[in-house]
Known about the structure:
Number of strands: 10
CATH architecture of the largest domain: Sandwich
CATH class of the largest domain: Mainly Beta
Strand content: 15-25%
Shape: globular
CATH topology of the largest domain: Jelly Rolls
Radius of gyration: 19 Å
Number of domains: 2
Helix content: 25-40%
Order of helices and strands: EEEEEEEEEHHEHHHHHHH
Number of helices: 9
Largest sheet: 5 strands, antiparallel
CATH superfamily of the largest domain: Regulatory protein AraC
Strand order of the largest sheet: 1-8-3-6-9
Structural class: alpha+beta
Amino acid sequence: MTADCARADWQMPKDEPGNPFKCTHEFAECMEKLKPGKHRFGSLGDPKNKILCIEQGSVKIEGPHGQWTLLPAHMIFVPHGRPYRICTSADAVVGVVHLSEQHTVWEHEGCWAAPTNSLAKEMLGYALRWGRDRASDDPVANAYFNALGLLCKEWFQCSRMMWIPFGESIELKRAIAYSRTRLESVTIELAAEAAGTSVRTLRRYFQDELGMSWRRFLKELRMARAIELLTLKRLSVTQTALEVGFNSVAAFTLAFTSFTGKTPSAYTKDFVSSGSALAVGSH
């Protein structure tokens, strides 16, 4: 199977046998570290909520309305019952927490991504001691996974971080595809021309199909790319600002900080200092 999830449409996936990311009700809440290799897995929706923490490589998650590209030191929450496709790179290493829906504080629709902060890294690393074969009546394990579920609301606060929408109409799909490859110079006029429609109509497509303005879409697209350039590519703040279409570092810094809650420099520093490895806790 290919690991290419860069699609502009969505078809409901099948429940594929052998999907290592799926955990059924027969297992207690648990955590495991997976090295799936280059694969693509689909599910109509798993019984448990899950947190995927990317330790190495890259992981793309595709849902009904868009896709997320997850890099090392980032994680994503996938709600129970939510259909998805997961595409993993050949070198991917992923920590996966399986949480009961009853113990998880989650009030949103769909998947949310976030950087793996130091507390999350420490707690997820410690949780690795309780795999699928752990005793379901272990009071310490049960309390620990309950705590992880309660922390999800705090850890995942940015609704569309690293999210690229699909769109439904062919015009919007064309506009999104064009914008993704020309972030340094794209305007709504150029996107409308590429989509074969008027600026006014394209604005309506964004509002009607995605529930956001062109301006909001472009900001989120730029921020998703900026995170990738700052962390995976290790570009400087100045280089990143220019690559994603900002003429001034100050304007880019302001936009990035309002979106992520951290300056570009602080985000990069946290990414480097936190590392990506999840080691089994020895406390």
